[in-house]
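Input (structure):
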């Protein structure tokens, strides 16, 4: 699965678009968004259990803003 599967599906299914959600982390989100067949990703790193339990909304906002600012594929 993951990046390899999405790359493999690009040629035989050129019109298909995906929103991967499992295994997406801050360290690999840019790799997913760089793929032309990925339109969005889901990731819980922006709102971890620890951040939510601590009600650390400024950090959640910061992480979400960083994710929203990442470049996307064509």
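Output (sequence):
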């Amino acid at each position: 699965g993951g990046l390899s599967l999405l790359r493999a599906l690009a040629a035989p299914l050129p019109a298909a678009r995906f929103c991967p959600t499992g295994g997406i982390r801050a360290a690999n989100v840019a790799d997913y968004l760089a793929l032309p067949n990925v339109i969005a990703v889901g990731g819980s790193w922006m709102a971890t259990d620890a951040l939510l339990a601590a009600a650390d909304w400024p950090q959640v906002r910061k992480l979400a803003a960083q994710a929203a600012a990442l470049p996307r594929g064509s």
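Notes: The chain has one domain: 2-68. The mean pLDDT is 93.
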